[in-house]
Amino acid sequence: MNRPILSAVLLSLLVLGTVSCGDAGKGTAVTETASASAETEQTPVTEVPLLPDSIEAVDMNGFQLGIKHHNQTTLSWAKNHLEVEEQDGDLFNDAIYERNRTIEEMFNCELVIEPVDWIYAPDVGKEVMAGDSTYDVWYVYDILILDCIEYLMPWENLVHVDLSQPWWNPSATDVFELGGNHYAAAGNYSVSVLSRASGFTFNKEIYNSIGNDKTLYDFVRDNEWTVDKMAEVCIDAYRDINGDGMLDDNDSYGVNGSYKELYNRLILGSGVRYVKMDNDGFPVFSLPGDESAINRILHIIDLFADRRAYASQSGSIPETEGLGSLKGGTVLMVVDNLNGLEHNRDLDMELGFVPCPKYDASQDRYYAPSFGAEVAVLLKTLPEERWENVGILMEAMNYYSDAFVIPMYKEVLIKTKYARDEESGEMLDIVIDSISFEFGLNAWQNTVANPFVQGAIMKNNANVMSTLETMTKSVNTQIKKLSEKIKEFE
Predict the structure, then answer these.
(1) Of all helices (H) and strands (E), which one includes residue 198?
(2) What is the H or E stretch that residue 181 is in?
């Protein structure tokens, strides 16, 4: 079987040569990246295997793989495109189109993808209780996974799927490993998880007015982008615009964003974990006994209690924001994610993007918390005779996406369309390589993360220990129920 993998419009950036499945049913794709300044300048040509070593292109005789996921209108804050009906010249869309058509032709199968409105836990339950298996793979909103976990089948049943591979985002996928089994997977077939990777968008003009000798990018490169440094530049960015000596909505501030969005970036970006796993693979509410983590949180709260840095207001967890506006030019930076960059395209100002800060220079990596995305699950009613084909196709599609679609998302959609400078592209690479999930946020946001932020921070009393003591009984009760539920159907 031979066919050109990508259409001519894609050749301007990513050229994939003819694929030959051959006797082994594999083949390679030749890739090269064209220079934006001159068509004659190109990066070295490399060969990328079309499929991982673990699988081969087999004839599935028209097998239909059914996938149900959220439409873009419903989950508007993430990028959820899994299917494109036809090529339209948009390089990212065309990459998705070619990916799906290539997989269909390679395996002689059909991808049946249905975007719908909200997929709730009861929807999953009704399907299983009725003994149905209308779709092979469902994409469920991350915080709803545990609400339907008794109806889910472990991914370990699909022998061709290797969740330790990078195309499955193992540091994110592993959050949904309970009792030794994975009940959800954050693979790269969907860019939903990638699109929610956290960072901060900043106004270059305001930052330059501070008069710092180093750029924010320099701080990141030099391992100096820490919570202390961020608080420092945010305070330096404050301006009493009307000169009345009051901190009000007529002034310019350091950072803006909801309590949940800001503090989860700062806390989890500092390597803190609300919940850890015990030796048997079940959650433990570890934060109350983690002195080091508590001290980090207290320090972060103290840093951003200065209203010049973050002028918070009273309100609800998801809606509360501080003073200052990016659009109005009255805030240095705002909480953001890769998908959010799209909404800044029309702003007439010089913008940059940096990752969430480390706690201090000794931290060995950056963390880019990703939450609010759809992740893939399997229902217990998936017939066993479908497992092999579903496993092969999911492994192939996630691998193919990681190798060919994700680079298009990074290089074209993000760096070319949304990032305002070459250095922002460098920062985006750091963010993408730092994607992380946290059980207390991704799985139990309304049980752990939101109650903690609300009790310990929103009330402006920094009463961390009291909040943790109040939460411990209810969280441990939920842990017990979850553990018992999983053990019942193991």
Answers:
(1) strand 198-203
(2) strand 181-182
- Candidates 103, 146, 101, 164; CA nearest to 377 is 146
Report whether CATH 3.90.1150.10 matches the domain 198-369+421-488.
no
Can you give the residue ranges of every domain in the chain? 57-194+372-418, 198-369+421-488
List of residues 6+ apart from 192 with CB closer than 8 A: 75, 78, 79, 80, 139, 373, 374, 375
pLDDT tens readout for residues 452-468: 999 998 866 568 999 99
Question: CATH fold of 57-194+372-418, please?
Answer: D-Maltodextrin-Binding Protein; domain 2 (3.40.190)
pLDDT digits (tens, 9 = 90+) for 212-260: 999 999 999 999 999 999 999 999 999 988 888 888 888 899 999 988 9
* pTM for the whole structure: 0.87
Q: Can you tell me the distance from the alpha carbon of 373 to that of 141, in angstroms, rounded to the nearest whole number?
A: 6
> Sign (positive/negative) of CA torsion 49, 51, 52, 55?
negative
The domains spanning 57-194+372-418 and 198-369+421-488 adopt the same CATH topology: yes
